[in-house]
Every structure is written in structure tokens, then in C-alpha cells.
Amino acid sequence: MADSTPPSQETLSNLLHETRSFPPPEELAAHANVKADAYERADEDRLAFWEEQAHRLQWERTWDTVLDWQPPYAQWFVGGKLNASVNCVDRHVDAGNGDRAAIQWEGEPGDSRTITYAELRDEVSQAANALTDLGVGKGDRVAIYMPMIPETVVAMLACARIGAVHMVVFGGFSVDALGQRLDDSQAKLVITADGGYRRGKPSSLKPAVDEAVADRPAVENVLVVRRTGQDVDWNERDVWWHDAVGGASSEHTPEGHDSEDPLYIMYTSGTTAKPKGILHTTGGYLTQASYTHWAVFDLKPETDVYWCAADIGWVTGHSYIVYGPLSNGATVVMYEGTPDTPHKGRFWEIVEKYGVTIAYMAPTAIRTFMKWGEEIPAKYDLSSLRVIGSVGEPINPEAYVWYRQNIGGGKTPVVDTWWQTETGAIMVSPLPGVTSGKPGAAMGPIPGIAADVVDEEGNSVPDGEGGFIVVREPWPSMLRGIWGDDQRYKDTYWSRFPGLYFPGDGAKKDEDGDMWLLGRVDDVMLVSGHNISTTEVESALVSHPEVAEAAVVGAADKVTGQSIVGFVILRGGEESVPDELLQELRNHVGSSLGPIAKPALLLAVPELPKTRSGKIMRRLLRDIAEHRDIGDTSTLTDASIMDVIAKQLPKK
Ligand code: WT7
Q1: How far is it, in rounded angstroms, from Cα 162 to Cα 164?
Q2: Residue 280 burial by CB count (10 A; 0-12/13-18/19+): exposed, middle or buried?
Q3: E strands within 269-308?
Q4: Per the annotation, does 413 bind a ligand?
Q5: Dist. CA 391 → ligand 1 center (Å)
Q6: Average pLDDT of the chain?
Q7: Under 8 Å CB-to-CB from 570, ≥6 apart: which residues?
Q8: What's the CATH number for 113-255?
Q9: Which site from 471, 592, 609, 611 is most exposed, i.e. has the minimal number of CB atoms within 10 Å?
Q10: Residue 240: how many CB atoms within 10 A of its CB?
């Protein structure tokens, strides 16, 4: 972890005086799954609290010990046995809910499928039998490189059922990224599809797999779902899903797996280095995924229709499309395609069509919808929504308010949920029936989580000051390590503050003691001796009515150390903007945050460089601002945007 300084208190106390606050709707608060007492109970006895949550699940054998903590290694519910797929599927059928829709799937071209819990149990059982027939056993790794189709969920649950470890690779990743992950995990089976629909046309997956496995003999078979019907090359080790799974028995007797048996590996790339294989195990992970999904979204499985718009290729999809919602018996909407295909109202059309009551998406999507204009969602009936959530990046206060107003009809709580691939499940978030939400703030740790903001020395900061977020006590869904690299696990998360887990994010406590997440510490700028967070300058820019999105970076400056260079996308998307407007935007930042935070240079651009998971890549903007050749762009959604942005920059 790069050593960095925390945002200085002096600067932070000047920043963003957010006074808006939205109390929970009375009706929701009255019937909320979780009330304020949960915090007290968890504070009194944290382990008893998590033990109570573990009883949400069905165990074949209960645990002997709740937590075995040998820092930095935790084991939860030691001695317990359970099967994650039974918890996500069979249990609901056995309880008489077999006819409930588990998945309401919407394909990009408009085809759709409803899969009930009973049907899901049959398919998962068939797939489990097929995997066993292909020689996959407990502990084996299985790569899943798929579009957003129901078979992806079936494949994950079938792995979980037989104790194989799934490793989902985002379908937008390249051959090299797939190959690197196959090498590191030594997967023996790859599950893929001919292709999926993206932006109105079939996009292929199988050719990338063919290339990746060509010189990787460890992969024994490739199991292929037919989705688009496009032509595929066929190799000796390839097997059609409809033959192998379709022909298998739907009877499968599951065994209980150890609470600490691996469930999956999810690679997270960080900024530059080799991706880290984050390992999650079974009992603790499922407990926290299940509890947080029920508590943070106030899920009522009988009546809610829940939609998480993330891709299953990210941890958000694992915990909040698959394991959390299905373990709770929820009805989950799943959408294959992009938000603007065939038109920019597609998301809202889906909300209206399925009567979605809970929606969960990323700030980058919300800011895109802001840019497209509020008249688009206004055309649809979104009145079914009752809780809406955000995840993946800090949500700027203006984006929060826009989301609440234009999507939530001015009445739904917005839950800004902070967590990471490594934490496995939500850690910091408001609770919709308890917390008065503040635009831009993730508010506080959920019950049972000991997150705090500390200074350079690891001491808790007082209200009104900033520093680093840390977690003081182990939590059930914490990563159990980095696949094959123990030293890196210790170095990355446990060395900055001895005894504390360090996620790598900056944070502050405001005057009320509420928590704000300020992005990766590597993104903090140092201007004339002041630490200024990119997030706060960006939020100030987005709070101007003309601005839809903003990214700022610190560029080396002989005089000030770093100077702030900002990139903005205007609402409506114009690129040629009068200098007066840019001047006005700079002054706007100056008056909201103080003159020190005024960008020295501000450019209007048509797009920003983003990773495929929607995070702004400030590292590349810094390269541009410092007139350097830009570094690795392989994880960008669209690398050509870098040239467009570079052209806007004044010559040195
Ligand atoms: C990083 C983790 C969480 C699952 C999806 C991303 C940033 C995430 C928030 C939030 C501010 C957030 C952090 C974190 N982040 N949620 N609500 N407010 N920042 O998982 O790819 O592992 O990324 O995303 O910087 O460390 P990930």
C-alpha cells in the first residue's frame, strides 16, 4: 500500500457543509426489518450479534466456536457445516416458496425469462451433476466467463453445491486478463457462452476462451452455453451446456461444507500491480451477505422486487445479485445489457415493467443519467421504488439528491453503501428505517462492524476531522487471504496500522460524527501544504447546475507542490464552452471549499476515462495533466478517449 498522508483537518473542516438531511419515511420506519436497538445489541456483544445473524441460515451442523481470531487470520463459525446453494435455493422450496420467482431475467434484445425457486433448484442440481461428471470436485477451481444470463447464477451455485471454488471473470475482460487469472487460480474448467448481447448486437466470448486455453493444459474442459447462436469454433475439450447440463438428472443430494471451506475467488486489480485473488469462504460470508441485504435494503421477500444493476463479474454481483438476495428468498431482476440500448430510458422501463421496489446501482451510472436529463426517467412510472442504493465510489451530494428526487420520487431513502471486494459485504451504510440520510455520506458502520476513522498514528479522530478508514475487529465476510500470496495479504491490509485492517480509503467524520468516504488515499492531492481530497473538489464541481460529472487530479507544480487540474462533463454534453463558464466553475469551487481548492486549470471533456467497473482512472488523467505518455490503458472501457482529452490540454 502506498504510504500517503491523510486529508488535513484544517482543510477538511472548511469543506462541504452539508445541511440537508432526509429522515426515514414513517411507514418504512414503522415496519423496518432493523430498528435502532440493533446497534446497541451489537455493541454489547458483537459475537452474540453475529451468531444471531448466522441463525438466519440453514446449517447441517452448528458451529463450536463463533470466532477464532489469530491476527490477521479469522475463522468464523468454526466447526459448522452448511451448503451455500441449499441456503440460496432448496431451503425456499422446502419452505413452500417454490413457485416464487427467483430470477426475473431481461435480455438486452427484449427477450425475458422467469425462473422460480423450484426451477432454479432443478437447474442447479442438474449443473452440479454435470460438473461432477466432468471431473470437477471439492476444492477445484472453476472459471466463469459469461454474459449476464441466468446460467451464470446457476453455474456459481452449482460450484458452491459441490464445494468447487468459482472464479468469475468479467465478460468484458481481455484474453490476457482471463489467461492471467486462469494461471493464478489453476482452474480446471471454464464455463462460458458463445456470446451475449451488448449495445444492440451479439458480442462474442468463446473466441477469447479458445485463445486463452490454447496453451493452458490445466483447463480440462470448456462448458459452453448457447446464448446468441453465433458460430463458434469447436475444440476437443468443449462441451455444450445444453448437452451436459440439459441431459443430467435434476436429483442431487448436497453435502454440508465446512464453514471455512473456500466459496470463491474474485480478482481485484487495484491500480497497477498484478491482480489479487481475494478469497472468500462459506459460513461467515453468507451470514454477512444475507444479513446486510436484508437489513440495508429492508428486504421483504414476499413482496419486494429487487434489482442490482451491477455485473456478476464484480463482487457486487456476487453478494447482491446472487448470495445475499437468494439466501433471503428474494425475487431478483437481472438485466443483460447496457443502459442505453435500445434507448436511454431502458433502466426505467425495467423498473416499470417488473415493479422494482429496491434498486442498487453505481454513482457513475447515476451521473450518466443526470447528464442525459431528468425528462427521461420522468416518462416512466417509478412509484414502486421504496429504497434505492449506491455503491462503488463516493456519491457526490448533488448526484445523491438527483437520484433521490428523480428516481426515488423524492420519498425513498438512499443508502450509500461502502465496502470492497475484500470486505465481501456492506460495512458502512445508513439503515433505511433508522438513519436520517445525508447526501454524500455513508453515515456509519452497520451493526456489528467496528469501522472508525483514524489519524496517521492510528488514533481515532474527533468529530469534524479527517483521516483513514480502518476496521478494528474482524467481521464475518472478511477476505481470508490473497490466493497464493500470504505475504501480500499482510503487507497490503495489515501493515499500515498494526492490528487494524486498512482498506486504503480516506474518510472523515463530520461535526455530527457521521462518516464520509473520500476515495482512495492515492487520490489525495497536496497543494501548498494542504491535503485536499479529489472527491470533495469533484463534488463541489458537480454541485454546479451545469456540471454532470467531474474528475480532478493533482499535477506536479514547481511552486505549489501539486496544482489541481479538473475535467468536467457538462449536462447536455457540450464540449465547446465559453471561458467565462469555466471561470465561473473555478470560482464556484473557491466559494464552496475555499480558494486553496480552486482548480488551476479546468477543461470541458466529452467523456472521462473509466475502468470497466465504472471507476474514474485518475492515474491516467494525471499522466495527461503532467504531459507524460499515458500508462497502461488495458482496463479502460474506451482507450480512444485519452487522445480526445489530451488534445484539449494547453501546450506546455
Ligand atoms: C473501493 C472498493 C463495494 C463493491 C464494489 C467495488 C470505493 C465503494 C463506496 C462508497 C465511497 C466507495 C472505495 C473502496 N467505494 N463503495 N459507497 N463510497 N467509496 O468494489 O472494486 O473492491 O472497490 O470502491 O474506494 O475501497 P471494489
Answers
A1: 6
A2: buried
A3: 276-281, 305-308
A4: no
A5: 6
A6: 93
A7: 546, 547, 548, 577, 604
A8: 3.40.50.980
A9: 611
A10: 16
Q: Distance from the CA of 231 to the center of ligand 1, in angstroms?
A: 38
- Residue ranges for the chain with pLDDT beneath 50: 1-15, 271
| Distance from the alpha carbon of residue 417 to the mean position of ligand 1, in angstroms | 8
Mutating to test ligand 1, I would choose from 517, 534, 610 the residue with most ligand atoms within 8 A of its C-beta, which is 517
Cell 464445494 belongs to which residue?
A: 163
Q: Which CATH architecture has domain 18-83+278-521?
A: 3-Layer(aba) Sandwich (3.40)
Q: Strands 141-145 and 189-193: what pairing?
A: parallel
**Nearest to 108, CA basis, from 146, 168, 148, 155:** 148
418 assigned binding-site residue:
yes
Q: What is the pLDDT of residue 8?
A: 41
Known binding residue 417? Answer is: yes
- What's the residue count for the chain? 652
C-beta of residue 138 within 8 angstroms of C-beta of residue 218: no
- Is the omega angle on the peptide bond into residue 609 within 30 degrees of 0, that is, cis? no
- Pocket residues for ligand 1 (CB within 6 Å)? 268, 314-316, 391-394, 416-421, 442, 503-505, 517, 519-520, 613
Q: Is the dihedral of CA 98, 100, 103, 104 positive or negative?
A: positive
What is the rounded distance in angstroms from the CA atom of residue 83 to the CA atom of residue 162? 9
Nearest CA residue ID for atom 6, ligand 1: 392
Domain edges within the chain: 18-83+278-521, 113-255, 544-648
E-assigned strand segments in 169-217: 189-193, 195-198, 201-204
What is the widest separation between alpha-carbon atoms in the chain? Answer: 72
Q: Is 512 helix (H, G, I), strand (E, B) or coil?
A: coil
Q: Give just the sign of the alpha carbon dihedral 182, 183, 186, 188.
A: positive
Phi, psi (5° rounding) for residue 150?
Answer: -55, -30
**Residue 192 among known ligand-binding residues:** no
Cell of 56: 438466519
Q: Would the CATH topology of 18-83+278-521 be identical to that of 113-255? A: yes
Instruction: Report the distance separating Cα 442 and Cα 418, nearest Å.
Output: 7
Given the CA of residue 520, which atom of ligand 1 is nearest to it?
Answer: 25
Which residue puts its alpha carbon closest to atom 24 of ligand 1? 392
- Three-state SS at 565: strand
Which 3 state secondary structure label does DSSP give 379? helix
Instruction: Give the distance (Å) from ligand 1 centre to CA of residue 317.
Output: 13
Asked if residue 108 belongs to a known ligand binding site, the reply is no
Cell numbers 495527461 correspond to: 624
CA–centroid distance, residue 268 to ligand 1 (Å): 11
374/407 Cα distance (integer angstroms): 9
- Dist CA 362 CA 394 (whole Å): 9
539's CB contacts (< 8 A; 6+ apart) are 16, 394, 396, 397, 398, 440
Which cell is 394 given? 463516493
Neighbouring-strand partners of residue 616 = 610
- On whether 232 is known to bind a ligand per the annotation, the reply is no
Cis bond before residue 439 (omega within 30° of 0)? no
Question: Superfamily for 544-648?
Answer: ANL, C-terminal domain (3.30.300.30)
Ligand 1 mean position, distance from CA 620 (Å): 19
**Residue 421 in marked binding region:** yes
The amino acid at 257: H
* Best probe residue, ligand 1, of 1, 293, 390, 393 (max atoms within 8 Å of C-beta): 393
Nearest to 22 by CA among 357, 416, 446: 416
Span from the CA of 516 to the centroid of ligand 1 (angstroms) = 13
Q: What sign for the dihedral angle of Cα 442, 444, 446, 452?
A: positive
Element housing 289 (H / E): helix 283-296
> 158: which DSSP letter?
H
Distance 483 CA to ligand 1 centre (A): 21
